Amino acid sequence: MKKYQVYRTKHGFTLIELLIVIVIIGILVTMGIFAFQSSQKKSRDSKRKSDLNQISKALEMYNNDRGVYPNDSSGRIAGCESTFTLPCEWGNIFGNGSTVTYMVKLPKDPTSTWQYTYKPATKGYYLYARLENAQDVSIPADGKVYNVMCGDYNCNYVLTSVNTSEPATISQP
């Protein structure tokens, strides 16, 4: 008599194989989340730099028309309404609203807890912001910040007029 061997075929995966796949997927998802968050920070920082550049152009137009840069009021540009002396709110018009408009909408910081800050200088101005990406080449390399608040934190980025030197930095509080 012949003996027949019965061969069983495996169907499915072992528990170890499933765990390895789950761990690999978890690592990939974690890396993807960090990369996504980093790109969001860089995108918001790029918007901040662009916003300050646009505000700078509007300030130069103001200076061309009036011969001076506007004063400030608690970090806001004092160049609104008919007298051009009232503070302009971030997110509102920069100008008198009827005959002269320098910006239809002064940009606001992309986050709700931070804000841009304007300070006049002797022959120019400073525009401050807080950048999120600590590795950005535009912020002081030594980790210092400016002695100006951009919401809850000190500002770490400044854009100045061409005839104004960069302000001094301080150690982070």
Lay out the secondary structure.
Layout: H1 15-66, E1 71-73, E2 76-80, E3 86-87, E4 94-95, E5 101-103, E6 117-120, E7 125-129, E8 145-146, E9 157-160, E10 169-170
Antiparallel strand pairs: 1-2, 2-3, 4-5, 6-7, 7-9, 8-10
Structure description:
With 173 residues, this protein is α+β, with helices and mostly antiparallel strands. The chain has one domain. Helix content is 30%, strand content 18%. It has a 3-stranded antiparallel beta sheet, with no helix packed on it. Strands 6-7-9 form a 3-stranded antiparallel beta sheet, with helices on one face. Strand 6 (117-120) and strand 7 form a beta hairpin. The protein is elongated and about 115 Å long. The N and C termini lie far apart (91 Å). The mean pLDDT is 89.
Report the biggest beta sheet as strand number plus sense, adding barrel if it closes.
3 strands, antiparallel
Proportion of strand residues: 15-25%
Q: What proportion of the residues is helical, as a percent range?
A: 25-40%
Number of helices: 1
Number of domains: 1
Number of strands: 10
Structural class: alpha+beta
Widest beta sheet: strand line-up? 1-2-3
Question: Topology as H/E string?
Answer: HEEEEEEEEEE
Average of the residue pLDDT scores? 89
